[in-house]
Recover the amino acids of this structure.
């Protein structure tokens, strides 16, 4: 097919000129979406903040994650606000030489800035871990259902549908109570209640792929199921799963925050955005200073926003015809 | 149509059996894993072995597991959801009133989010990439990114609670705003105005993220539809935008939204956890969460099973409604 015919057929600019590799086209399209690039950069910063930023923030401020400073509370026991310095021993006035709390302190006198950074660790570990497990299960179930069809598909599809009909959060909380709170447990619980979304996507994609000519050709020259699966089916699932994965990571960050908020996620005193929020809300301290809710809330919202924008950008870059933005 | 409906009802029944089995199994998993024997819990710490055995016999936990499950399903079929350990009364007596509160919350919120989503989605979708559409899209993305457990306390702070310090992040607030009550529930039949007044903030908190998701969906559907030939033909014949929305877009979009609503009932019941705890509404989420904290298993299982039945029923009803609204679905599903 000539380049001219190609561009006439599609309303979207597919870069006229010399033939390029698909990955080259992908990067060119992705780079043009400035919001998606900015989101990607922001997410890299969040990862860096979680990895190196957390200990760095602890070192610079001199407060560790769970260190409770009495001087961060005033005489009534109310914590420091944003950009305030610690109180004098009587708790009546700010000490001009006291330590600066950039994002304020929580009700126990812990530094919110340091805790938000450490909270990023928990959010990212749980979200990425759970997403990886969910996608792995999703690939196995979805490919089996889509590739083998018939009875396998009927059973798998019913299974997926039933799983989706569950009130997930209610059961997740019950399951979390059974196996106890903890980082790995939260991760497993979230994976158990999210695998069916990738499974459904993979199944539809595999069914569509099975009908393509190149799979038919591979089969007609005697390719085994194994060969077709690993050389033809799985590579074609990478793009949709990458796009879909970013949105699952986003929902899983919320899921973890929700579990921690209900007290069945990552246990105290480990900082997590969800437990910071719940600590401020259930104790009622946010009514004295809404920054207690706004600080972890902003971290959550910005990360979610960036993940969603990145996902949209990736989707467009992989397949410009699939999305209108 | 009848064939399609019967088939769909059968699938719903299979789902229900799977869910009751899972909830029941989880119940025994809970009992086993936490090391708490239900009979021991009821009889108390000082109970003798004989007393515990007597309670076990009354509860039926001394029978083989398959018999226990059979009995559980049999009782469910007769509207018996079990007996709460902590509150010492039938689970049904606790769950049904709570379900009314949750239903008020979810149904009211669904109306709010559908109205919001319809306005935002249609306005944006009719003129894609316009300034208005871009502005609305930013709102949609923000709405999707903001979890309900952040929206709820913020709404309750700004519209319900009187700020003591009167400033947010150093910016002074003009006046203490105490526009809405932030706790309590008023029965709809006793005081309809008070009911809506007490639920206004919970509805809004609940509805925002759903409104954003639905608005994005409606926007995409509208964009897809307005490029169709029949819309162009209608325009060429001089039809107004209002008429096109009414006669061409709505019949094509409604079935999709109905199915989404049916699927989201299960998701929405999860969200009820957060909204009910922040606003102090005695609903299913509240009952379920406190039962989990008190290790009151029959109440937990009762809540889960009840919520699951509601979710499956809504899902099935939505599918059948989708079939009724869109003949293509019932043809595909019928054979």
């Amino acid at each position: 097919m000539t380049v001219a015919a190609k561009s006439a057929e599609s309303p979207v600019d597919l870069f006229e000129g010399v033939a390029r590799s698909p990955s080259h086209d992908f990067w060119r399209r992705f780079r043009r979406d400035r919001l998606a690039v900015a989101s990607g950069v922001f997410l890299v910063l969040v990862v860096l903040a979680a990895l190196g930023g957390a200990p760095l923030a602890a070192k610079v401020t001199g407060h560790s994650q769970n260190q409770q400073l009495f001087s961060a509370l005033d005489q009534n026991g109310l914590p420091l606000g944003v950009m305030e310095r610690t109180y004098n021993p009587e708790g009546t006035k700010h000490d001009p030489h006291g330590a600066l709390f950039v994002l304020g302190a929580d009700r126990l006198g812990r530094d919110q800035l340091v805790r938000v950074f450490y909270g990023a660790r928990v959010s990212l570990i749980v979200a990425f871990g759970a997403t990886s497990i969910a996608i792995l299960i999703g690939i196995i179930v979805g490919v089996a259902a889509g590739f083998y069809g018939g009875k396998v598909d009927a059973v798998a599809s019913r299974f997926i549908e039933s799983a989706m009909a569950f009130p997930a959060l209610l059961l997740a909380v019950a399951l979390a109570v059974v196996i106890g709170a903890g980082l790995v447990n939260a991760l497993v619980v979230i994976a158990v209640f999210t695998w069916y979304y990738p499974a459904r996507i993979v199944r539809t994609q595999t069914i569509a792929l099975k009908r393509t000519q190149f799979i038919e050709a591979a089969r007609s020259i005697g390719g085994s199921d194994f060969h077709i699966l690993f050389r033809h089916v799985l590579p074609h699932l990478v793009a949709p799963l990458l796009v879909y994965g970013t949105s699952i990571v986003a929902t899983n960050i919320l899921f973890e925050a929700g579990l921690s908020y209900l007290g069945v996620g990552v246990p105290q005193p480990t900082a997590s955005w969800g437990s910071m929020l719940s600590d401020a809300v259930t104790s009622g301290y946010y009514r004295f200073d809404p920054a207690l809710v706004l600080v972890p809330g902003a971290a959550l919202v910005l990360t979610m926003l960036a993940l969603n924008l990145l996902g949209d950008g990736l989707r467009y870059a992989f397949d410009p015809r699939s999305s209108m933005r | 149509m009848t064939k399609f409906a019967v088939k769909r009802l059968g699938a719903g029944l299979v789902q229900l059996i799977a869910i009751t089995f899972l909830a029941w199994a989880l119940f025994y998993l809970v009992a086993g894993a936490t090391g708490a024997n239900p009979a021991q819990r009821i009889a108390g710490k000082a109970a003798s072995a004989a007393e515990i055995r007597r309670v076990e016999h009354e509860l039926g936990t001394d029978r083989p597991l398959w018999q226990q499950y059979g009995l559980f399903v049999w009782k469910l079929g007769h509207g018996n959801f079990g007996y709460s350990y902590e509150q010492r009364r039938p689970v049904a007596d606790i769950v049904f009133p709570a379900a009314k509160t949750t239903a008020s919350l979810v149904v009211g919120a669904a109306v709010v989010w559908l109205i919001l989503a319809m306005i935002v989605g249609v306005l944006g979708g009719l003129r894609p990439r316009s300034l208005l559409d871009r502005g609305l899209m930013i709102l949609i993305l923000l709405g999707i990114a903001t979890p309900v457990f952040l929206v709820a306390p913020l709404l309750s702070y700004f519209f319900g609670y009187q700020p003591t310090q009167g400033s947010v992040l150093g910016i002074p607030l003009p006046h203490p705003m105490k526009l809405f009550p932030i706790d309590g529930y008023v029965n709809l039949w006793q005081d309809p105005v008070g009911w809506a007044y007490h639920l206004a903030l919970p509805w809004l908190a609940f509805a925002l993220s759903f409104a954003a998701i639905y608005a994005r969906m409606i926007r995409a559907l509208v964009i897809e539809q307005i490029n169709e030939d029949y819309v162009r033909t209608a325009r060429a014949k001089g039809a107004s935008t209002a008429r096109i929305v009414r006669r061409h877009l709505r019949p094509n979009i409604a079935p999709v939204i109905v199915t989404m609503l049916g699927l989201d009932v299960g998701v929405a019941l999860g969200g009820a956890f957060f909204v009910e705890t922040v606003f102090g509404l005695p609903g299913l989420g509240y009952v379920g969460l406190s039962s989990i904290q008190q290790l009151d298993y029959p109440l937990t299982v009762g809540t889960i099973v009840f919520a699951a039945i509601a979710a499956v029923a809504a899902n099935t009803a939505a599918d059948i409604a989708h079939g009724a609204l869109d003949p293509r679905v019932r043809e595909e599903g019928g054979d």
Observations:
- Residues 276 and 286 of chain B are 6 Å apart (CA to CA).
